[in-house]
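Methods: example folding runs. The two proteins below were folded one after another, and each record is reproduced exactly as written to the output file, sequence line first and structure-token line second.
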Amino acid sequence: MADLIRLVGQNDCKKIIRSLLRFSFFIEPVKQSDIKTTKFDVRWSPELEQDPRFTSYADCYAIFEASFRSLIQELQEKRNVLLIKMMVNKPNVSYELPIDYISRTATPIHIVNNVSWCFGGLPLSVVKLRQFLTDSSKHDYATFFTGIYNKIKTKTYLTDRVLTGLYKTNREKRWECHPSSVQFALRKVAWAIELKLIKQVCHFAGFPHNLRDLLTRENILIFENQEVLCPITLEPLSFDLLKREIENTTHGKSDFQVGHMNPLKAETQNEIEGHTPENISWISEQGNRIQGSNSVDFIREFVIKVYHNYRSVGYPGAD
């Protein structure tokens, strides 16, 4: 413990230990008798028997002990100290740590040989951008981006409300739902999704030039010369309209949504069919209604077919 305090300070040491205990020993599964709620439970709970998420107390302790020892080694690098301090002080999900499973297919999944610290470019990019964009001392858009992070948190890190099928879910952390569920995602995948969605907002039409220049100058984000379009309508997504919506939220109504481009499939090897950054995007409310439960490719082919039908009957404006 003294080594960790020396490396990160006493306050951050407490946060790290609390989060590591949470990861090692506890889980927050949805209650199968009442899919409306989740409830903390220990990994060796009888309710998890015959479940790949079940782990004995001894194995949970082994995860905690091994993870703590390896963390001290990881924190010999100053970049890793910076990362973990930023993450525990600016989390986008409770008890956030740069730790993850190696594979979703390991059985049991929660075992010492399937757990690893995830220091590196991806989580560092995520927390640096998160910290900068929500820092009111840096620019005037911190309140807006705090709202954006709150908006994408559920879709990124928490499961959808699925009340039918074999694996029912409702707002568990994605890496804590059943690994065979279509809702499951490794923590590192969720980070990549957060990063993509935030980068997309920074490429909405009309993104402030002063903030773009600041992000570039501070080496926080590299910009591309391409605006984000709704995947269905192909109309540019407007930063000003999104900002207006975030600042004047109407419950149950949103012109800007986050959606999967293709229906989710479990344990797919195809990245465009799971909860992955390749299969997720901002989409307009109108585009989301048009897409429904179909894939983007299906809707695009359907729209082109309808267009040709209109042209064939000489409908005004279809030429």
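Second run, written to the same file directly after the first:
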Amino acid sequence: MKKILSIALFFIVQTFLAQNNNEILVLSAVVKDKVIPNAQVIFQKNGETSLTRMTNSAGKVMIPEEFRNTNDLTIIIKKEGYSTLVSKCPCGGLTYAISPFMTELDGMRIVLSWGQRPLDIDSHLSYQGGYVCYYQMDAVNAKLDVDDTDSFGPETITISKKLQGKKYVYAVHNFSDKDNPNNANLANISRAKVYVYIGNTLIKTYTPQAGKVGTVWIPFIIDENGNLVDINDYRDASSWEGVRSILREYRPSEQQTVVSAGDVATAKQINKRGEEQYHAGNYETAIGYYQDAIELNPTEGLFYSNLGLVFQKSGREAEALWANRKAIALANGAMANTVKAGSYYNIARIYEAKNHFQEALENYKLAKQHKQNPVYDKAISRVQQRL
């Protein structure tokens, strides 16, 4: 059962936060209240030189005075063994939870953080064969690592291995206001953010849309093919059972992402810079450019294909799987079959290298379905002999 924060403790927390709204706290995303000392925190603002500070033994760092009270601040948090976190601010008084590297090819970590209010926000994950939330923290290949009930988070769900062909629906529930339907606190005042990690990489950040009403926010689903699909839907529920009912019956409506002509053109230019950096062997720089291009135009399959290739070259196989799957989902036009065949082949190669021969065989066959190539035939024969 959820813990109820006493009124006295609530006011102690309020006072503490008021005195520390120029600090940020860095925690582990998977160990309750574990602080992260000696993490590098980089503060960036347009037109100004970035500054770097280190978290102290309590996991805290002061925001430099010239970077306070601004809406165009970006922070980058780095720590060896943890995925780099990038977040846009204002960020004073907030907690940031960083994710240890994941080794599972088909794993994913979802980290929720928020501000001072509402006190209690929960993560929920529903899929055929399992359900994860504070009430039931373990399910098949998924668990709630951290539950938080007194502001800031994190709440962390780790999927150790996504079940093939299953849809996953993720939601955030405003537990504090569960009995007050049609309120906008989750969207307007929570400062909530959902960070999605695959392998060593933060691949997506979700923020609620201001003005939306509802105690349940569904930022995304993971479809049957393993793709993240942006949703941003809002509902109401007064209990964890109510959230479960919504998620288990959830059917997303068809949504079409609209990208302006200016963003399309700019994204192409950024992607070209990524290609230049890739060919120069500067893989990390190339990854950044490709991610920036996708941020501007998430409908272009070529950007994901490029990102998948550089991830693979960098030894980041889990991220490469995700990017190639997204390239397949977005492939269209005259080159669609070529893109799909190449992406399935790259996915299969990753599985084969990890001795996951059944998954490798399935993807080699999918590559052949989309385009005939003797290389695919040889790969199918080779893997069949290993099974």
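Comment on the second run: The longest helix spans residues 261-279.
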